[in-house]
Automatic annotation (TrEMBL), chain A:
Purpose: Transcriptional activator that binds specific DNA sequence.
Keyword set, alphabetical order: Activator, Cytokinin signaling pathway, DNA-binding, Nucleus, Phosphoprotein, Transcription, Transcription regulation, Two-component regulatory system
Source organism superkingdom: Eukaryota
Family per similarity comment: Belongs to the ARR family. Type-B subfamily.
Keyword DNA-binding: yes
Bias-annotated ranges (Basic and acidic residues): 167-180
Keyword check for Nucleus: yes
UniProt feature, compositional bias: Polar residues: 405-432
TM regions (residue ranges): none
Region of interest (Disordered), ranges: 161-210, 405-434
Gene3D superfamilies given in the database record: 3.40.50.2300, Homeodomain-like
Protein's name according to its UniProt entry: Two-component response regulator
4-aspartylphosphate PTM positions: 85
Automatic annotation (TrEMBL), chain B:
UniProt-listed InterPro entries: AHP1-5/YPD1, HPT_dom_sf, Sig_transdc_His_kin_Hpt_dom
Compartments in which it is found: Cytoplasm, Cytosol; Nucleus
GO MF annotations in UniProt: histidine phosphotransfer kinase activity; protein histidine kinase binding
Keyword check for ATP-binding: no
PANTHER family: HISTIDINE-CONTAINING PHOSPHOTRANSFER PROTEIN, PHOSPHORELAY INTERMEDIATE PROTEIN YPD1
Any Pfam family matching the protein: Hpt
Domain description: Histidine-containing phosphotransfer domain (HPt) contains an active histidine that mediates the phosphotransfer.
Name recorded for this polypeptide: Histidine-containing phosphotransfer protein
Cited function: Functions as a two-component phosphorelay mediators between cytokinin sensor histidine kinases and response regulators (B-type ARRs). Plays an important role in propagating cytokinin signal transduction.
Amino acid sequence: MNLTKEKKSMSTASSSVGWKAGDVVPDQFPAGLRVLVVDDEPTWLMVLEKMLRNCLYEVTKCNRAETALSLLRENKNGYDIVISDVHMPEMDGFELLEHIGLEMDVPVIMMSADGEKNVVMKGVIRGACDYLIKPVGMEALKNIWQHVVRKKRNVWKHLEQSGSVEEGDRQQKQSEDVDHSSSANAGNRRNSKKRKDEEEDAEERDDTSTLKKPRVVWSVELHQQFVAAVNQLGIDKAVPKKILELMNVPGLTRENVASHLQKYRLYLRRSSGVSQHQNNLNSGFITPQEATYGPLSSLNGLDLQTLAATGQLPAQSLATLQAAGIGRSVVKSRIPMPIVDQRNLFSFEFPKLRIGDGQQQQLSTGKPMNLLHGIPTTLEPKQLANLHHSAQSLGSMNMQVNAHGSQGGQNNSSLMQISQSQSRGQTLNEATGNHVPTLLPSSMAQPILSNPVVGGVLARNGLTENGRGTEYNLVSQSSSMLNFPLNSAAELSNNSFPLGTSPGISSLTSKGVPQEEVSSEIKGSVGFMPSYDIFSDLNQHKSHDWELHNVGMTFNASQQNNSLQSNLDIGPSVLSHQGFSSSRRTGQNSNISAVGKPMFTAGDASERVNAQDVGHFNTFFADNSVRVKSEIVSDANCQINIFPEQFGQEDLMSTLLKQQQQGHIASAENEFDFDGYPLDNMPV
Amino acid sequence: MDRRHLRQQVTYVRKSLFDQGYLDDQFMQLEDLQDDANPNFVEEIVASFYSDSARLIQNIEQALVSRPVDFGKLDDCMHQFKGSSSSIGAKKVNMECSQFREYCCAGNIEGCIRTFQQIKQEHATLRKKLENFFQLARQAGQAETA
């Protein structure tokens, strides 16, 4: 066939020209594109490999999703694009998609013989940049490079724009462009933009809520860079544009920075307001410490700052958390719920978000760092790992919460989970995990355990769970650390957990360890930032979409749950950290436990999150890069009503919602991405 | 002359495979992929398919005989098989697979069993035809895509 011949000649020609392995020679582009193809069918794998080679791409093939994931993890920048089959044993294509979205921002194309609308939709929603139906032909493969270009362009565009925009005005336009041709993605971009809502109320919220997949994951490192930039500029003068420039991170948009900054500011505010928030975390949202958290009671949860202050939270984590919490700036009862935003969940990499340290209490800033809040942080894998651990306990809870949507696999946010779990306690676990459990409104602070995965997940999902609008703002108290026992030390990279939950959450450190610490801290401090940003992103708060898809946090991933669950013993109290005045906590707590270990003793101020709990949280978070943007449940009222004992997902959500409504959550700024979650209703 | 005759035969056989609906465009795609670097690409793919499909067929059979019937699993197995057969463009086989899946969705086990027999038959028929085709092509000195 002519075609063949042409191709051959073409290939011959090109092959001789600068196409080296691993190199994408610019002028040869798309030749040399590094493709990772995943398919459990050997026949197809051979065919695809040959086809891709004929396109002059550099192909790596594997027949298992797990293999692909480890290949990607080993070399994050080793591949330009991933093509994966949907139906595979053990980990399927969607799970892989989620993981990738959380951990490494590589475009993913789904493939299947199944062209049914629902399945395709699933792919789109989870962030696949395209969906090919088998049999796949050369024509389809020849054009896959467009996704790579598109993604990069979006990133650039964002960067450019960010420069010009003031903090307050996040523009969403960037998102627009992103959307790309492929059917999938459509929502992604929008979602990421959502995060910003606090000031803007972005329309994004709506968009994002449905679509998850925030691309920016606020990893610990990223957050650190951010903090460094902010400090350099001076907190007062720090504007997104400049910060972005200083950070010089490709792919980061102004909006991303803006929303992150918001949270950070909130977080700082809280931290300063709350001097001793160690317990804040505990009481964090939940307890009346609100005072400390300032209006941000919601953030209490993780007052990352406090946490950070306590030194528990590694600076970076804090940063991240702060970032998360910033959104919350003085959110008074507003649960920052840019849930949707959270899609990107901060994947905060909290290396050690140890909430429990007790020091976290410094979360005085009370800023619920919505780490998860839309600020996509990427939780590095290791962080996720940490989260994992911590999240395990927590994670199970929250993660499930988060994960529910997302897949448990992702640890999104263990934190999220925590927060979520709290509210959801059970629901979370059961829930698709996305529900950002209202559980934690207070606990939202859940350590944004940045399970790398979790974070990612959360981020991705935007913690759909947040549907309730609770943004889990994990205030990342840098010092306090939400030590999310995240594997990697709370790398809530993905989770934008507003570490609102103060110190309590810190215990969530990924290390999974600090359970001790956590317990107290999380209490309330768990940032449950009622803003389930993450969730909102994912689900539109309202809809109890606890689908944190991304919530990779082990939340749902039953995979991780095991660990998490075990850890999360946070007791109900943990969950309630969200600043709920603990009253609810009890109820919630119980739920939380049910959840699998609610990560935070949500709100129950009274209950100090036992270290254990916290510890769990951590694991919880750890597992999942809880990107959940826990809404910062307004401190005071974070009543985590969501945790009604049996938080069914819906319950949680509603509770959370209510809480939010009451304005507790999301201190002041309701960053609820949830659609109109009026926090005011939160029953106090 | 003999060679030319052989080539003609190859062309003819190939055409009839398409005309009779045994193969579809996907097979042509495979042929297109065959080049100097992979001169027997098509044959390799077909061989891979047949070796893999033996396992898939077994899975389906097991699912068919197990009681109570798990239609979900049956559907999954068939989905896999279908995906695999679509890789070589096995048109008739694929059509039967679709039919099978319909019966499966309807919970019609007899229909499934019947259809599965058809599938196996088509599967075997195609195999013979392709083997014959490849052999002829080898004899003609070159694969059809040459």
